[in-house]
Write a structure and sequence with these properties.
Elements lengths: L11 H11 L10 H8 L3 H11 L6 E4 L5 E4 L5 H14 L8 H11 L5 H11 L8 H10 L5 E2 L2 E2 L30 H4 L6 E8 L7 E7 L5 E7 L4 H18 L5 E4 L8 H8 L2 E4 L9 H13 L11 H13 L11
Amino acid sequence: MKCSKSRSHLTDEDRFLIEKSWNIPDGRRHPSVRAIAKSLGLAETTLRRELKRGCTDGKYCMVLNDKGKRRWQYFLYSAEVAIQDARWQASAKGPRIKLTTSHISTIKVFLKEWPSIPSAYEAMVNDNQNESFPCLRTFQYHAQKGYWSARVNRRDLYNPHGRRPKHTPPRTAGNHNPTHRIDDLPEEVREYRVKGYAQMDTIHSGARGKDGLLTMILPADGHKAFVRKLRDLRQEIVHRALRSIARECRRLGIKITHILTDNASEFLDEKTIGQIFGATVYYTHAYAGWEKGAVENLNRIIRFFYPRPTDFSKVSQRRIKTLQWKLTTYPRPTKTRKVA
């Protein structure tokens, strides 16, 4: 006889059936857990978890007898103990509350006076303190999934400005108007076929730290990587680190002609950056990190050695130099399917 599969949880009848199959009189050979689970039509992990819940004296285990030989010791399974424990766990979850039509109609009334769902939810809870409402996340989830409309006066109050359609080019950044953008970058440079092309970015330290790292990589020059430690992320500190990288490039005989970076505040002085390297500076679109994927992958490798809570002010300069050597010699696939 097998257990019922009409529900996702075991019923009381299923637990009494497990008790009958598991509690075998002494003198008979006890079958394995896998064999009993197969005969009952249950998963082995489900049966093991249920036995752990309903065993009265403890968990079945392998012990040594008086002669030093190993044998299995099976404890009795009680269906009543398992049922009592399952009901207690179900009651500990609390009552199940759903988003009813009255909740939706109530919040729609407040949406006419407040500009967004969070503000309307706060006003609704303050005015109806004797009633119970689901959490704010439940209302936002249902509005986002389209289960109910949050439109008032033909305007979506959950997302007033609307979502950017998919498969559309990203918008340009509005914090500055650079001379060159990524659209002006030559195709052969973008495909890593011309040497002297560099991508740079910064890595912020922990939540309380103001310091970080300046990273730069040259994908067409053997993936040469540069890492500099920053005391903070001001422009003058970043320019000082870039001058150090420029001196090292001159020592190695590397000429940088194109630089691609994002629209962060520390990189907005394109004139100074271009003068340091004698190169043209290009900027990506806003919130489009994939456009400088080489340096983003470099930052991901750095996070492997130094996870996100790391405070880089406590990392020595010697370790930074060792990290730069590791990043340059790190084997990585290129666009030609060869390992650099």
